[in-house]
């Protein structure tokens, strides 16, 4: 594997990591918003449209795409929350929005319809992506220690108890939804300014699957589980050349196996506690 | 007038195959209440099995039998591997396990049969033309189209009979109502879940073979695309409602056949997704179904 393709691999995987963390936010509240491919597409298209056709500065376009994607998430989740969709219905509802967006983009002449958007200026560099990814990771670490982070866990555990403590439930949920959508949009903007050519069909069901499977593989209990899953399933198959052909099937089989044996995923906060106690020399071993 | 009648026939054929997939899909949703996304892949597996049977044995009946039985067995495996171990988990987990299983099926087909290139049924056997004349109007119907209508009708009637009149059907309905109460009455919920998925998969397998007879070529991904449209049909008809699924399927077939002439074809798929959004927003229980969203 050459140096150039290694750099490409790292950039793409880091972009996926940012998107996946955006996708993780609603899931961590036990709200099945699976519209990440749509938010990613909004960010990718809006930022690319701005830099290519209107010569807007890259940073500004990136922010615009991200805000638009956040607004998109607010609309989708706002509607879903309004009619109190749960579980199954929520998943189908958000997925339908993402797929509808893809079909509409396939027909809008201004963004190249199904032929795609070509000639996007190259702005995304490894340094930039790495810096943003690290910042986002630190942000997640910090979020787990804030009031908003604790509320998120509370909503995941039992959202009907939360308002009893005087917390504005809908507003809290929507804030986290918008954050997730915005992260997806940010990743989309970075993506379009790296690959320089995007088509609506890049943002279909397959994108959702390639983000979703590794996350659940790693574990949704804490964000580092999702991160670990992405790193494991995103990088390792790329390094073993013989595996390239079987990348998808390996990913699917690994995910299926882990979920059957350990439905909570590979790494949970208990795993970390267990490892810590082992490192400390562990007199009293906590139950896993 | 003859153009219109021809479109009616085409709509009926597309609608019949949608309905066949939709009744199985709605059965799984109604009974197991999980986000099951392996139905399209099982359908494709049935289509490939039918293709092999047709090449070796040369008869459409044999192809249908092999596709149907093979898909039913595959359905049993899917339930055992991807649904049963994660029954207690939230909806996301079942979504991921079934999608993983579907990916394994699709990738296996892609890697083993002509590297996933589209592949046609031998001699285009389904495309042979039959002509019918009704009141002086000539209609073109292919062998495949005729097979779709006949087989779909027979299978849907058979399924309705099983659900309404047999012991298996009564058990399935009991589990759909309440797995807990059903288990207290001595019904083995696990076994019924497996048999439900197998029954639904059998219909999907038959639909796959019929699809192979009506479209020019199949590839490992035709099912995934179909699956989302059928999901719209199922939501429209109401989860677990067989009449709703049949009506919804035929209706979607008609709308698509009619829209083919007036709308850009690329917008055709939008219809299915927007239907889902509108139904979920305004009437989550569908036209015939029970309430899908549990309100607290």
Structure in words:
The complex is a heterodimer of chains A (288) and B (296). With 288 residues, chain A is mainly alpha-helical. Chain A is built from eleven helices and no strands. Chain B has a single domain (2-282), classed as ABC transporter involved in vitamin B12 uptake, BtuC (Orthogonal Bundle). Chain B has helices spanning 2-32, 39-57, 60-83, 91-112, 143-165, 167-177, 179-184, 189-214, 222-237, 242-262, 268-282, and strands at residues 129-134, 137-142. Chain B has a two-stranded antiparallel ribbon. In chain B, a hairpin with a 2-residue loop joins strand 1 (129-134) and strand 2. Chain B starts with a helix and ends in a 14-residue tail after the last helix. Chain A binds chain B through residues 27, 30, 32, 34, 79, 83-89, 91-93, 96-97, 99-100, 103-104, 106-107, 114, 160, 205, 209, 212-213, 216, 220, 245-246, 248-249, 251-253, 255-256, 259-260, 263, and chain B through 29, 33-35, 81-82, 85-86, 88-93, 95-97, 99-101, 103-104, 107-108, 111, 224, 228, 231, 235, 264, 266-267, 269-270, 273-274, 276-277, 280-281, 284, 292-296.
Shape of chain B: globular
In terms of DSSP E residues, the strand content of chain A is: under 5%
Overall tally of domains of chain A: 2
Largest sheet of chain A: none
CATH topology tier name of chain B: ABC transporter involved in vitamin B12 uptake, BtuC
Spell out the key features of this protein.
heterodimer, A: mainly alpha, 2 domains, 0% strand, B: mainly alpha, ABC transporter involved in vitamin B12 uptake, BtuC, 4% strand
